[in-house]
Task: structure prediction
Amino acid sequence: MSCKSLYTTIMNRLIISFVLMILSIFSVAYAQHNPFIKTTWKIDHISPNGKAILVKAKWINLSNERAKFHFIQFEDNFKYQTGISCYNALGLYRVRENNIIELTTSDGAMSPDCEEPKNLSGSYYFKENNNIIELTPLYEEANSTIDANSNKS
Result:
């Protein structure tokens, strides 16, 4: 084997190793960025200002068992379910940079004798501490379409 072919082989292996290392770093970084994938959280409480406290719970097989508490269960990178034993809603979510999660409820069903629980919907800043997540709503100011000078005579 010539020196040139040995050098080429070593360089190719180094390049492939480097690319695989970068890909694994990105996948680990993304997994750490989204703490919600394949988790179930008990909604401990939602305050009047919209701030919510979630406590990590065991995974629930929703086809066999209905939660006896108000829960939110994240299935993958996009879908979640929420509800209690007599109410269930499906939704979509997205985790953004700076620990922001957007929750959108798309469909729900409840028993006739059930009272609909409080719903988490909108954009929240999340802070994780051990098995507790605190969600703080992000309120975006509505942009006014009225020109401030239009009322002047």
The longest helix spans residues 3-33.
